[in-house]
Design a protein that fits this description.
The complex is a heterotrimer.
Chain A lengths: L6 H23 L37 H37 L1 H15 L3 H12 L3 H27 L3 H9 L3 H37 L11 H8 L7 H29 L1 H5 L4
Helix pairs in contact in A: 1-2, 1-9, 2-3, 2-5, 2-7, 2-9, 4-5, 5-7, 7-8, 7-9, 8-9
Chain B lengths: L1 H28 L3 H5 L6 H11 L5 H13 L13 H36 L4 H14 L3 H15 L11 H32 L1 H9 L3 H38 L5 H10 L3 H29 L1 H4 L2
Helix pairs in contact in B: 1-12, 5-6, 5-8, 5-10, 5-12, 6-8, 7-8, 7-10, 8-10, 10-11, 10-12, 11-12
Chain C lengths: L1 H19 L12 E6 L15 H10 L4 E3 L5 E3 L2 E8 L2 E6 L13 H12 L13 E8 L2 E6 L6 H4 L15 H9 L7 E7 L3 E6 L13 E6 L5 H9 L5 E2 L12 E14 L9 H9 L3 H8 L4 E3 L22 H10 L6 E8 L6 H13 L3 E8 L1 H9 L7 E5 L12 H5 L17 H10 L4 H18 L2 E13 L3 E2 L14 E2 L3
Parallel strand pairs in C: 1-10, 1-11, 14-15, 14-16
Antiparallel strand pairs in C: 2-3, 4-5, 5-7, 6-7, 8-9, 9-10, 11-17, 12-16, 12-17, 13-17, 18-19
Classes of the chains: A mainly alpha, B mainly alpha, C alpha+beta.
């Protein structure tokens, strides 16, 4: 595998790292509580506009809460949800894909049908149905978002497994008497790891957007927990009067998703442009 | 070819019913439509009576059997909320959703293909960076955000187009842009990648060496190669597109299936949810079928796979 | 390459065909003024027995008539009935207006009224049965006279005839098959007749020149088009651009950017409380909850001042309203004192529940209250739910102890019986949560007494005492009386009704 480190990789990595750091450090660097608001100080502008104040660097939202604080704490929530869902989806999806692609036969047949069934179901409706059954909450949200992403992993990893299992070294390993599990873990998994990593990177961005869409429908993170998605949704109607309430969460989402996608691109270029480029991003 | 088509159809039917059965169970675990429909002072008797009228008093197994039997004859029951046949309600709205999805795809292809090709041709230079920058930003914008911004800027401030509703080409523009942006972004990036590969292929350098005009070379060969990935992408992304349609239809008051499905889930209108999911699943599979057939037309090599 | 070109051509043809067959409906093809009204949702059905939602009832109110009706000042007026009186304690005789025709030309007779009311009496056939539950039977005396026989003396029959669910349609359609047709193609006696309906897109009504209620004047609005727009921002934008004439559900924060008409409403914003267990079972704790809330600040900041803080359980539009009861002032110190007296100096834990979309800024309302309460030691958890789950919790009477559920109940009869008692009755939403609702307690006895006596003066006395009890015991968390905000275009004018009804016949349009 060739690795090329350089600006295409370092710049987005730095962006993402900054967001992650902000999320981790939020309890210490946040100037105010994200849930306490002064009703009398609603919709105040950022510090550089008339009416702004240093206590509210980025202004206050519709309940008088500090936008910057909500942004920082929101990073914690949005990013941890996205990360958890991505990891869950990647682990489940790759496992399923490997098993289906390597063992073939009945397992493969059943799993492929399952994947097709889920693909035939628009994700948003699936999400609403699941949340309707289980009630809203961060745990349910993570599971639902993971459900939305495991299929992508499964399909691609299955395809890879299908081709890899015919490789010489796999035949050789079998001839020597190595068990299936050993072959899977020691030979196939390392090969697909880079692909999984790239897919997962793209997933993070997708999931952050999905979370905000679910929040738009009222199914996302519940109040008073801040999240970029639900803050964006609540602020949409104030876009004219108080642009800062919507602009900053929106910007945060865009910057993180941008960073994550560019990172994925760079990783893909770095690892092996040929095998991965033919799959869709 | 015929055997292939038949196998695909069987697969389609299986998938569609699999999806619907899943929904059937999930819905019945999720709430009580009789409770949603009655006002607060309804007595327990009324609740029981309404449940009986709606057919919800029987066991899950019996309900499922009846449902399957009816569904196979094309009867998805009567909507709890609207008192109309559920399948009819969904089919009424399908053309609107298809029109929107189609327009979004068309717009996306028309914008993304040239963008991707240009980016590949000017690789590493300003145009490439700009084009790809736009693409990534497009992918990073939630559907509802794009929709609201478009309404604000184009419909209200500039007053170029109507704010919402359906009724002709002018009404289609903003929703189509909203729905098609993600797809366009992904397509642009994919096109660029494919073009980059193509440009280094032997036959291109050969053609160049032969002295054929650069423009003709690119158009003829590159576009032809782009066709297959575009079609693949449509098949893969159609599900996401249908999902995005739900949000887009809500914002733009577009009378489509997505909006109906969401409302029905919130209202626990089982027959309509089941019918919508069934129709959407069928549509999705039909699109994939179309994609497979198009492969055969576009590239005979693939058909033989 | 030829294949690709063919495909592209096919695509373009299909697309053009799709857009060309796009029809938005008859729109502006009438002689007189056409207006467009936009609510957040389309009517779910045009069968008036199958919906009690305000948005859908607005459609009914224009196409159908009831026997009696409330005018724009909420005074009871004759509708399809011109006279009504008690024949004895349990029988009312109602005389129908003569010469009234349905939109399909057939005459209105007592048989039609009987068929509609009979359907309303059967559990499961409609969703409005509860409002007619006191009626035992409907008898036809002659084609213009009916008798309503009640189980016990019922002073509310005159207003029961005006409530939603009492809309009259042809009797032949009151069958299971008939109502399916009615749901799609309504036929009533109302000021506007149904023209066409593209679901979720547009429903068109034309003025019914033969309507009995024009009073000799020509209809000001010839055609009304109902166009639902679910998203708040999109709906507001449509008004700003002049695409619609009237919108409902205007966010209070956006009032300054459009022209609005407002009026205090018949609904109150409150939380029902499960006070069956400590700490909420102690009256002092419930009072503390109120002292710890700055309701005027909430109204001013979250609702642009559109709201009237209240106490006593009733909106000022309801019979039985007691104007002497003043809302509790904001006094966090007193709240803490009360808590300490009750033995909770260390604070208490409660949970606020709400269905998303119950009212404007509902989520923010809960967050603001939770924030205020935390200053007084009341630790609050917030649970926002989907409407279906909230309905389920309400219908199963499953709000947990020390839980509070946001509500804005309708006043169905403009009478304390149809609002306060409807909810606190042991069968009602709040009935199980407060000991005072149970038989043997003073409040219960007062309300039951008022329900079954025909003496209006006596009823007023009973309600005066009952509302005072509510004011002291606070079994509900009381906030404010709602104010309806309509956004209107410059050419519209009408007196906004407190009962949330949009009656097009009451609207006038100034020439463009």
């Amino acid at each position: 595998m060739s690795r090329r480190l350089g600006w295409p990789l370092l710049l987005p990595a730095a962006l993402v790292l900054a967001a992650v750091l902000a999320a981790i450090l939020a309890p210490w660097i946040s100037p105010a509580s994200p849930t306490t608001g002064e009703l009398g100080a609603r919709l105040k502008p950022p510090v550089w506009q008339a009416g702004g104040s240093v206590q509210r660097l980025l202004g206050s939202d519709l309940l008088g809460r500090d936008v910057l604080s909500r942004l920082l704490w929101g990073a914690r929530i949005s990013l941890s949800i996205a990360l958890a869902a991505t990891i869950l989806g990647a682990v489940v999806g790759s496992t399923v894909g490997l098993v289906a692609g390597y063992y073939r036969g009945l397992a493969d047949g059943a799993l492929t049908k399952l994947i097709d069934v889920q693909l035939g179901f628009p994700f948003v409706l699936l999400a609403i149905s699941v949340i309707a059954v289980a009630g809203p909450g961060i745990g349910v949200l993570v599971v639902v978002l993971a459900v939305g992403s495991w299929v992508g992993h499964a399909r691609i990893v299955r395809g890879l497994a299908l081709s890899l299992r015919e490789r010489d070294y796999v035949h050789a390993a079998r001839a020597v008497g190595a068990g299936n599990a050993r072959i899977l873990l020691r030979h196939l998994l390392p090969e697909v790891l880079s692909v999984i990593l790239i897919l997962a990177t793209f997933d993070v961005g997708r999931i952050i957007i999905l979370e905000s869409t679910l929040s738009f429908l009222g199914l996302g993170v519940q109040p008073p927990t801040p999240s970029w998605g639900s803050d964006l949704r609540d602020a949409a109607i104030y876009i004219r009067r108080a642009w800062w309430t919507a602009a900053f969460p929106g910007l945060a989402i865009m910057v993180v998703v941008l960073g994550v996608n560019l990172l994925g691109d760079a990783l893909r270029d770095a690892f092996d442009p040929r095998t991965v480029a033919s799959r869709s991003s | 070819m015929a055997r292939y088509a038949v196998r695909k159809l069987v697969h389609t039917a299986f998938v569609a019913f699999g999806v619907v059965s899943l929904v059937f169970v999930a819905l019945r675990m999720s709430g009580d439509p009789a409770a949603t429909m009655l006002p607060g002072d309804a007595s327990i008797d009324e609740l029981v009576a309404l449940r009986k009228v709606l057919g919800l008093d029987q066991s899950l197994g019996v309900q499922y059997a009846r449902f399957l039997g009816d569904a196979l004859r094309g009867d998805f029951g009567t909507s709890f909320r609207h008192q109309q046949p559920a399948l009819g309600l969904v089919l009424e709205r399908l053309p609107a959703t298809l029109e929107l999805a189609f327009a979004a795809l068309l717009l996306a292809v028309v914008v993304a293909l040239p963008l991707g090709i240009l980016a590949a041709l000017h690789r590493g230079r300003a145009l490439d960076v700009l084009a790809m920058g736009l693409a990534v930003v497009g992918q990073a914008t939630p559907y509802f955000w794009m929709g609201l911004m478009l309404i604000l800027i184009v419909a209200v401030e500039l007053a170029w187009l109507p704010t919402s509703g359906r009724g002709g080409l002018a009404f289609l523009v903003l929703p189509a842009i909203t729905l098609g942006t993600h797809f366009a972004a992904v397509l642009a990036r994919l096109t660029r990648t494919t073009m980059l590969e193509t440009l280094t292929q032997n036959y291109v350098t050969t053609a160049r060496a032969k002295g054929l005009g650069e423009g003709r070379v690119i158009l003829a060969h590159a576009l032809k190669n782009a066709a297959v990935p575009v079609v693949t992408l449509i098949g893969l992304q159609f599900g996401t597109l249908l999902g995005g349609a739900v949000v887009t239809e809500t914002i733009f008051a577009w009378p489509g299936v997505g909006r109906l499905a969401v409302q029905s889930i919130f209202a626990r209108d089982y027959p309509v949810v089941q019918a919508s999911v069934f129709v959407l699943a069928l549509t999705f599979v039909a699109i994939n079928l179309l994609v497979d057939l198009l492969y055969g037309v576009l590239d005979p090599r693939i058909r033989d796979e | 390459m030829r294949n690709v070109r063919l495909i592209v051509l096919a695509v373009v043809v299909v697309f053009v065909a799709m857009v060309a067959t796009d029809v938005s409906g008859p729109a502006a093809q009438s002689r007189g003024a056409t207006i467009t009204i936009s609510q957040p949702a389309d009517a779910t059905t045009m069968d008036p027995g199958r919906s009690t939602q305000v948005l859908t009832v607005n459609y009914f109110a224009n196409v159908y008539d009831t026997l009696t009706r409330w005018d724009a000042s909420l005074k009871l007026q004759p509708g399809l009935a011109v006279a009504w009186k008690n024949v004895n304690e349990t029988t009312w005789e109602v005389t129908l207006r003569s010469g009234v025709k349905f939109h399909d030309g057939s005459p209105l007779t007592a048989e039609d009224v009987k068929a509609v009311y009979d359907r309303n009496l059967v559990p499961g056939k409609t969703v409005v049965q509860a409002g007619f539950a006191t009626i035992e039977a409907v008898q036809v005396v002659n084609p213009t006279t009916i008798r309503l026989v009640t189980k016990k003396p019922d002073p509310l029959i005159p207003v029961r005839m005006a409530q939603m669910g009492g809309y009259i349609y042809p009797g032949r359609l009151a069958t299971d098959e008939g109502v399916k047709e009615l749901a799609r193609k309504p036929i009533g006696t109302g000021a506007y007749r149904f023209v066409s309906w593209t679901k979720d897109d547009q429903l068109v009504m034309d003025a019914n020149r033969e309507w009995w209620g024009w009073g000799g004047k020509a209809p000001a609005v010839e055609r009304v088009s109902w166009k639902p727009i679910p998203d708040d921002f999109a709906r507001l934008s449509a008004l700003q651009r002049g695409e619609v004439d009237v919108i409902t559900n205007v966010p209070p924060d956006e009032m300054k950017i459009v022209r609005t008409l407002t009026t205090p409403a018949t609904r109150i914003a409150n939380f029902l409380m499960n006070s069956t267990q400590p700490p909420l079972s102690d009256k002092r704790v419930r009072q503390a909850l109120h002292y710890a809330m700055d309701v005027p600040s909430i109204v001013k900041n979250l609702y642009a001042g559109q709201g009237k803080p209240m106490s006593g359980g009733l909106a000022d539009s309801d019979f039985g309203y007691n104007p002497d009861l003043k809302p509790y002032p904001y006094d966090p110190a007193r709240a803490k004192r009360l808590l300490a007296e009750a033995g909770y100096a260390g604070g208490i834990d409660v949970t606020l529940y709400a269905g998303s979309g119950t009212m404007v800024n509902d989520k923010q309302l809960l967050e603001a209250i939770a924030d205020m309460w935390s200053q007084a030691g009341i630790r609050t958890k917030i649970t926002m739910m989907e409407m279906a789950q909230r309905q389920k919790m309400n219908n199963e009477r499953a709000v947990p102890p020390n839980g509070l559920m946001l509500g804005n109940p309708q006043s169905t009869l403009l009478d304390a019986d149809g609002s306060l008692w409807r909810l606190f009755h042991p069968n009602g939403f709040s009935g199980k949560y407060w000991v005072g609702s149970q038989p043997g307690h003073r409040f219960h006895d007062l309300m039951e007494g008022a329900r079954y006596t025909l003496d209006q003066k006596k009823r007023k006395e009973l309600y005066t005492e009952a509302t005072r009890l509510i004011h002291e015991e606070k079994p509900w968390l009381e906030l404010f009386q709602e104010v309806i905000i309509y956004g209107v275009s410059k050419r519209m004018s009408f007196k906004p009704r407190p009962d949330y009804r949009l009656i097009v016949a009451e609207m006038t349009v100034s020439p463009r």
